[in-house]
Amino acid sequence: MSGDAALRMGTRKSVMATTQSGRVGDRLTARTGRAVQLVGVTTFGDVSRAHLTQLGGTGVFVSELRNKLIDGEIDFAVHSLKDLPTTPDERIALAAITVRDDPRDALVSKAKFADLPAGARIGTGSPRRVSQLRMLRPDLEYVPIRGNGDTRIGKVTSGELDGVVMAAAGLGRLGRDSDISQVFEVDEVLPAPGQGALAVECLASRTDLIELLNVLDDPHTRAAVTAERSVLAALEAGCSAPVGAFASGDGHILNLTAAVVAVDGLRSVRKSTSGPSPAAMELGRDLAAAMIAEGAGTLMGEQAH
Ligand SMILES: NCc1[nH]cc(CCC(=O)O)c1CC(=O)O
């Protein structure tokens, strides 16, 4: 970093991504006085039309941003934390995890979920959402969709679908809160590990920059999402697996719940635990081990076919 040169912030180019990255950049400037320049990057996940479950899950939205860090084309990158693979890359530092927005999933529809008629068509590309929604309403039809947020909402407006389920945080960033007919409580639909939080990454070798970016870090969010992601890692699952996890706490004690739900929505393994925040990693790992002992691995295996 030379003097007051603007920091180059890599981001995906969607409205959702640039909105969330723009806010991170503004906060960094407000707290450190450093100018931030937004650099839009196209990722494999943006280009491929394949269904997300076919893309292998891990890192399709992340790899190209990391390549730009390594090539020196950007100084730091902002990702949705839930898109970040749990396997660490030793060249890259997770310099900050931002304070989490609403972690819950939301329905965009003309009706509440319970009031939808049997056979109503609900769009979502996420096996985690389909499995859990099917548990609540086995009588609805779940339709895989992809595309940016506004495209998905458009399918409801046009009548092609009766509803779509997306992250409340993402809808908020698109300014589409008023389209939400219902927000699912976390005990109805467990969110994806890390949902609603953002990850700020830079090169591990740039210790001065890591220190600067640390002003964006929220320790409460970091502890919670560390426990959630630790469940995912110990289950050896990626972001397209039917795994939900949610942790919250007061800064001292974390309460963690995780579930694996079979694609038919009939069988699930769901467990909760609590423990000290500094032991977030162990908490998640131990919960995952207890879930595997109850057959979670088998349920996830079925999902792959
Ligand atoms: N994989 C796409 C993705 N990655 C992060 C979000 C939502 C925003 C967030 O969780 O921070 C979304 C869209 C969605 O789930 O509806």
UniProtKB/TrEMBL annotation:
Keywords: Porphyrin biosynthesis, Transferase. It is an enzyme of class 2 (transferase). Its cofactor is dipyrromethane. Its EC number is 2.5.1.61. PROSITE patterns: PORPHOBILINOGEN_DEAM. One of its GO terms (molecular function) is hydroxymethylbilane synthase activity. It catalyses: 4 porphobilinogen + H2O = hydroxymethylbilane + 4 NH4(+). One of its GO terms (cellular component) is cytoplasm. The modification S-(dipyrrolylmethanemethyl)cysteine is found at residue 239. Binds 1 dipyrromethane group covalently. Residues 224-292 form the Porphobilinogen deaminase C-terminal domain. GO terms for biological process: protoporphyrinogen IX biosynthetic process. Gene3D superfamilies: Periplasmic binding protein-like II, Porphobilinogen deaminase, C-terminal domain. Tetrapolymerization of the monopyrrole PBG into the hydroxymethylbilane pre-uroporphyrinogen in several discrete steps. Belongs to the HMBS family. The porphobilinogen subunits are added to the dipyrromethane group. Monomer. This is Porphobilinogen deaminase. It comes from Sphaerimonospora thailandensis. The gene is hemC1.
